[in-house]
Design a protein that fits this description.
This protein is mainly α. It is built from four helices and no strands. The radius of gyration is 16 Å and the shape is globular.
């Protein structure tokens, strides 16, 4: 898993954020290859959403995209998303514990 040695929170101030924290965490290394494949499927799903008009339906777009990507990846995207979520929580927790 990716571990941050230090976290620079200057970016959030540069963006005008006065509370919270902006943390960008990569997908864990062991999921990178699958992540690259899934990115291609994301591109396909976005294209499909534009063709069928779902991209213009606001709040319906994200659930539709997540479902379509899960279909296209035979569930691999869900596993990768959970790994990314866990890694983000881990890094965020480390940051909070040292703040």
């Amino acid at each position: 898993m990716f571990h941050a040695q230090t976290m620079d929170t200057d970016a959030q101030w540069q963006l005008g954020m006065q509370n919270g924290a902006l943390i960008a965490v990569p997908i864990p290394e062991e999921y990178e290859a699958v992540g690259e494949k899934i990115q291609l499927l994301v591109n396909q799903a976005v294209s499909e959403s534009e063709q069928n008009g779902i991209s213009k339906s606001g709040k319906d777009a994200t659930p539709w995209l997540l479902n379509r990507i899960a279909e296209l990846s035979n569930g691999e995207s869900l596993i990768s998303n959970i790994a990314l979520l866990k890694n983000t929580a881990l890094i965020g927790g480390q940051h909070l514990s040292y703040s």
